[in-house]
């Protein structure tokens, strides 16, 4: 989520400070006072503008994959999506890691689950379901199958993010980009097309 262009300067300053601090330090190690200091505002304004530290975290740690990542022919979506993930900017990586580190908090866990549903499962489901009747899709999906395939696809992507960004699997990190895109893309494609 991004702020509206007409948001007050103090709210924009809080949002940017919080996004940076949460990404660098995590949810638990970032205080409202630190955010206010970074934003050069009174700490009371943080609560006035965002309601709570948790709400501010959820608003600033929102990953927007974008519809373009799911566009194109269904039969090559796996490789294209893995290439997109590998090319993701540091902001997406930082937000993903901040969300993961904060996932033991009930409110944050709920947000993380919703982000998974809205950012990965729903767009994959929509894309898979839209391929029904597409001669390029060898296994057209009914709605239950589209949901299963979307959840499997999201899990495949999540596994890659975890391996690369959390445990920093050196074996994967040292593969040539094209090899990783091709081989991991084939795993994702198998989930997408069944």
Structure explained in plain terms:
This is TetR family transcriptional regulator. Residues 8-68 form the HTH tetR-type domain. The chain is an all-alpha fold. Helices cover 69% and strands 0% of the residues. It has 2 domains: 9-60, Arc Repressor Mutant, subunit A (Orthogonal Bundle); 67-193, Tetracycline Repressor, domain 2 (Orthogonal Bundle). It is built from 10 helices and no strands. The longest helix has 25 residues, at 106-130. The radius of gyration is 19 Å and the shape is elongated. The two termini are 32 Å apart. The model has no long low-confidence stretch (mean pLDDT 86).
Topology, element by element:
Elements: H1 9-25, H2 32-39, H3 43-50, H4 53-60, H5 77-86, H6 90-101, H7 106-130, H8 143-166, H9 170-173, H10 177-193
Question: Could you write a compact summary of the structure shown?
Answer:
The chain has helices at residues 9-25, 32-39, 43-50, 53-60, 77-86, 90-101, 106-130, 143-166, 170-173, 177-193. The protein is mainly α and 194 residues long.
